[in-house]
Write a structure and sequence with these properties.
Distance between the termini: 91 Å
Number of helices: 2
Number of domains: 1
Radius of gyration: 39 Å
Order of helices and strands: HH
Shape: rod-shaped
Helix content: over 70%
Structural class: mainly alpha
Length: about 130
């Protein structure tokens, strides 16, 4: 288990703590209800049904959180793969730009050399045409 997965599970545990505390409170309420109820069995059954429905909603919430964490892990893996591809592309781009700059430097040197040769020719002739 890598650090990212451990961290995400830690987040799930931390986020689940209030839900588990609520479950413990509901169970404590149920125990207290059994001790103190002297009323009808119908009222007791209604409380039990309500508690079970609430517990089911909480469990459904926990299930949704687990699904969300799984989707998050999957997205992070895809993001990691995309970042690796981007790194490779950037490396290739930098190599291309380096080659292009080398070619541009060569072209500039060629133009400079051509201008130098042209300038020397003009200076030797004195800038005038020989027919004068």
């Amino acid at each position: 288990m890598d650090v990212m997965q451990f961290s995400l599970w830690a987040v799930v545990v931390v986020c689940s703590a209030p839900i588990l505390i609520q479950l413990a409170r509901m169970i404590g309420s149920l125990i207290e209800l059994i001790r103190t109820t002297s009323g009808s069995l119908r009222d007791f059954a209604n409380e039990v049904v309500l508690t079970v429905k609430t517990a089911n909603r909480i469990l459904a919430t926990v299930d949704d959180m687990v699904v969300g964490v799984k989707e998050l892990l999957s997205s992070l893996k895809e993001l990691s793969a995309g970042a690796k591809k981007l790194g490779g592309t950037l490396k290739e781009s930098s190599q291309y730009i380096t080659k292009l700059l080398g070619q541009t430097t060569g072209l500039i040197a060629l133009v400079k050399s051509t201008i130098g040769i042209f300038t020397k020719g003009v200076i030797k002739k004195g800038g005038h045409d020989d027919k004068e």
